[in-house]
Amino acid sequence: MPTPVLIVGHKNPDNDSIAAAVGYAYLKNELMKQTLENDPSAEKFTYIPARLGPLPQESEAILNEYSVEAPEAINHVHARIQDVMTPDPIWLSEDSTLVDAGRLLRKHNKRAVVVKDKDDKYAGLVSLRTIANRYISAMDHCESDSAQDLENAANDLASSLSQSVSELLEDEVVFLNKGDLLKDAAEPILMSELREGVVLDEDGHCIGIVTRTDVAKHPKRKVILVDHNERSQAANGIDEAEVVEIIDHHRIGDVSTSNPIHFLNLPVGSSATIVALQFMEHDVEIPKGIAAVLLSAIMTDTVILKSPTATPIDEEVAEMLAAIVGEPVKDFGMKVLSYRGGDADLPIEKLVTADSKEFVVGDDTILIAQHETVTLDVVMQREEEIRAFLKELREKHDYAYVLLLVTDIFEEGSMFIVEGLHGQVDRVFGIDSSKSTWVPGILSRKKQVAAPLLES
Ligand SMILES: [Mn+2]
């Protein structure tokens, strides 16, 4: 069995955390295949992409569109029963005899055998201990060493051999679920006389056995972190896990490891960019689906390469991936952002106030809000609703005016929507903002809008 290695992004995952996990798991599994071709005896690992929360809308859409499997949802990386159990334990049917049990235990050198009922469900456990007790109880006949007593004991033993196992089931068995935390299960197992636990599934089938030796192993789950390297953002139980690699593009945080690891952190626009670079470094071909997933994350993390965090490396990688996908970068990016649903369904309050700031101008207080978009027309279809909300805000907080900039990052300009006394805005920008007005070149609220308004 290959050792599983989880590849997981941060809590509350964004598209980059999903994409980097999916892409990197694919690459690592390909590299594992290559390793095994060269050396079949090499240690085997299987890389499993995982996520610590729901799929973002755009991730779900892209994964579906390109038929790429979504990462598995997990809640933590604590060691679980299933990480240590011996799966598919040896078993006997209910009508088996003690002889059958003894043979099986000897053959497999085990301490216990599962008894199944006719529906294949768990019926009980026969252990060496029960068998030994049965054996010893036959000695009750040996009150003396007389030939008669010994013969009685021998007869009793002989009859026990044909006894059904269902009469000899252990009564104090510890039952476990495969998802139970190992640390919670350890004590009951160590305390039980049997010192083994039985793992049942929801339907009552026995799927594994955990011995006290298994519990004592304290296995650490292996984890590769992508798109984060801070404990606060990492899976619960991260301190108990073994972080074996980190791929990230954020500031260096506080995840620590006991061994040197492959820690790749680059100041680029997305973790997906770094994953794509790793494909190139290892000369592994990127399938179309994986290319689409990675490109989608560059698109969302860098807002189609328009964000100040986007670098020339992101641009190059995006072009390379877009060539594989067979769509121009910008078209693909627009598609991904449109999957976010965003502008059409965004609650009005979020659209207006998610990025808004009050400023004091003389005796007046004003509010300048900004909403960045790639679908200006969709936003402007909601103009009436927006204006009603701006009016409400103004009355509630007694602003002189409220200005919403709807900034189109492609057209590189902003639509000015003003409610209230718009004279100042008109003077400073040379416009008539009694109705919504497009002002080209305005992208920065701070530098290009707030500053001149405050200085006027
Ligand atoms: Mn990211």
Notes on the structure:
By secondary structure, this protein is an alpha/beta fold. The protein folds into three domains: 3-79 and 220-338, inorganic pyrophosphatase (n-terminal core) (Alpha-Beta Complex), CATH 3.90.1640.10; 86-216, Roll (CBS-domain), CATH 3.10.580.10; 348-455, Roll (Diaminopimelate Epimerase, Chain A, domain 1), CATH 3.10.310. 41% of the residues lie in helices and 22% in strands. The chain is built from 18 helices and 18 strands. Strands 3-2-1-11-12-13 form a six-stranded parallel beta sheet. It has a five-stranded mixed beta sheet with strand order 14-15-16-17-18. Strands 4-10-9-8 form a four-stranded mixed beta sheet. α1 (15-38) packs antiparallel against α10, α2 packs across α12 and α10 crosses α12. The protein is elongated and about 120 Å long. The termini are far apart. Manganese (II) ion binds next to loops.
Question: Which features would summarize this protein structure in a list?
Answer:
single chain, alpha/beta, elongated, inorganic pyrophosphatase (n-terminal core), CBS-domain
Described by strand count, sense and barrel closure, the largest sheet is: 6 strands, parallel
**Radius of gyration from the alpha-carbon trace, in angstroms:** 33 Å
Our estimate of the beta-strand percent is: 15-25%
CATH class of the largest domain: Alpha Beta
* CATH architectural grouping of the largest domain: Alpha-Beta Complex
Question: CATH H-level name of the largest domain... which superfamily?
Answer: inorganic pyrophosphatase (n-terminal core)
Number of helices: 18
Stretches where pLDDT falls below 50 for ≥5 residues?
Answer: none
Domains counted in the coordinates: how many? 3
Mean pLDDT, to the nearest integer, reads: 92
